[in-house]
Specification:
The complex is a heterodimer of chains A (157) and B (68). Chain A contains nine helices and one strand. With 157 residues, chain A is mostly helical. The chains are: A mainly alpha (157), B mainly alpha (68). Chains A and B meet through helix 8, helix 9 and strand 1 of A and helix 1, helix 2 and strand 3 of B. Strand 1 of chain A pairs antiparallel with strand 3 of chain B, so a sheet runs across the interface.
Chain lengths: 157, 68
């Protein structure tokens, strides 16, 4: 990866990939710097904004992470993963109405997005909207009955 | 697993028979799921010369990471 950057120093994707690897290694400050460099080189790089948001989230900076996810959506309107990830962070902060809205936007963009539908079911259950939660879970079962049961956030492999 | 969550909602709704059915599905699926996860991560189980079960090579799969 670093060789790739040395050969092609102005490639945003190289910095974004480097950032993802650094994040997996737990080197969050370096990962954030790499993602930011990718965004400097391509200010409309939606995937880099999402990856930056994930690194910021892992660092515990939830507000900036949400901001980065929103930037991802500004760069790419049809980005259901960014809506889902916003929902997860809002849910963690107890902002349940907003989290439900974010999940609904994710599902509206991709009706087969079982993880976002599952997260919607969880937040509706937390809000005691039992009929809505049941409907969401039944849609998940029709999509992927073996989905793991934790709240899921999307990260690129 | 989603059947477990569905069962909890149904229980909260007072639909106890439906909740039990959902929990039964969760239990049945969980057994299959656990086996599937083991196989995807460690490969099909094989046996060594002593007959003990040993795992295969680890694949590079990565499940969606949850906020746990």
């Amino acid at each position: 990866m670093r060789q790739e950057i040395r050969l092609r120093p102005n490639t945003p994707a190289s910095y974004n990939n480097l950032g993802s690897v650094l994040q997996q290694q737990g080197r969050l400050a370096d990962a954030i710097a790499a993602h930011r460099r990718a965004i400097e080189l391509n200010p409309n790089y939606a995937e880099a904004f999402l990856a930056l948001g994930n690194a910021l989230r892992q660092q515990g900076d939830l507000e900036r992470a949400v901001g980065s996810y929103r930037s991802a959506i500004a760069a790419r309107r049809d980005y259901p993963e960014a809506h889902n990830n916003i929902g997860v962070l809002l849910q963690m902060q107890g902002r349940l109405d907003q989290a439900a809205t974010a999940y609904r936007e994710a599902v509206a963009l991709r009706p087969t997005y079982a993880e976002a539908e599952f997260n919607l079911g969880i937040v509706l259950h937390q809000q005691h909207e039992l009929d809505g939660a049941e409907a969401a879970y039944r849609r998940v079962i029709s999509l992927n009955p073996a989905l793991p049961w934790f709240t899921t956030i999307w990260e690129p492999c | 697993m989603v059947y477990n969550n569905l069962g909890t909602v149904l229980k909260d709704q007072g639909a106890l028979d439906k909740a039990l059915a959902a929990f039964d599905n969760a239990i049945a699926l969980k057994a299959d799921y656990a086996e599937g996860v083991l196989q995807s991560r460690y490969g099909p189980a094989t046996a060594d010369k002593t007959g003990r079960s040993v795992g295969g090579l680890c694949s590079c799969d990565r499940a969606s990471e949850g906020l746990r």
